[in-house]
Amino acid sequence: MARTVEVQVANQPEFEARELKATIAALRTGLEQANHAAQARAQEAVAGTEAEMRELKATAQALRENMERMRFDADSRVQAAIAVSSEDIRQLKQTAQALRDQLDKQRFEADSRVQQASATSQDEIRQLKQTAQSLRDQLDKQRFDADARVQSSAQVANDEIRQLKKTAQSLRDQLDERAHDFREQLQAKDRDQRAEVKELQSAIAALRDQLEAARRGIATPTSSPPRTLAN
Q1: Biggest alpha carbon distance in the chain?
Q2: Which of the chain's termini has less CB crowding within 10 Å, N or C?
């Protein structure tokens, strides 16, 4: 039974690690897709402004670097947790093996004493049996303590994995929030450009009217000069 618990504990951190790595890979894919979408929208919205293009590229690069740092930190923590858990399991296996060897030796010695004393003293035989039972109780207690240490190590590894999952979720939420803010900025810029186009069209129409009036010999009003085109 102790060996079954050790196998389960040894496999559980590896399973959690694989699941966490899959989550990180999915998050990286989502970040890359978001970056591609952000770059495509930025290219459509800032088609003549080189300064804004450089700023968007710098923002995308910063997001990639932050994601790479997060992935490296997560991988490092997973590897550290697995290494700690594996070392604890190895030590527990060594301890269990040493206890088994000691128990075998003690049982052999106890049996020898029982065989030697069986012909002369039943009382001494009973004492040896009590000693053997005490040794079995101590071994059971040590096995129970070893199982408790294994469970404690597994709990530490699980807590670390849960913390990493929370960190990944927090970063995903921050990425969604930045993408939302960027879309709102693009929409605001598009509205400003449309308003500016309408204003330019109105100014052009007024100039055309004045030019047409001048051609027909009508004096241009001086109280309302034409509006200067905005840069």
Answers
A1: 147
A2: C
Go through the chain and tell me how many residues it has: 231
Based on the number of CB atoms within 10 Å of its own CB, is 160 exposed (0-12), middle (13-18) or buried (19 or more)? buried
Distance CA 1, CA 74 (A): 33
Alpha-carbon dihedral sign for residues 101, 103, 105, 111: negative
Task: Return the HEC string of 168-218.
Answer: HHHHHHHHHHHHHHHHHHHHHHHHHHHHHHHHHHHHHHHHHHHHHHHHCCC
Token pair of 193, please? 């450009």
Nearest to 178 by CA among 45, 74, 60: 60
Q: What is the pLDDT of residues 123-166, one digit of tens each?
A: 888 888 888 898 889 888 888 888 888 788 778 878 888 888 88
Sign of CA dihedral 211, 213, 216, 220: negative
pLDDT in tens, 68-92: 888 888 778 878 777 776 787 888 8
Residue 158 near residue 16 (C-beta atoms within 8 A): yes
Contact 5, 150 (CB under 8 A): yes
Angle between helices 2-45 and 50-117 (to 10 degrees): 180
Q: Where are the domains of the chain?
A: 2-215
Letter string b/e over residues 15-24, b meaning 16 or more CB atoms within 10 A of that residue's CB? ebbeebeebb
Contacts of 14 (CB under 8 A, 6+ apart): 82
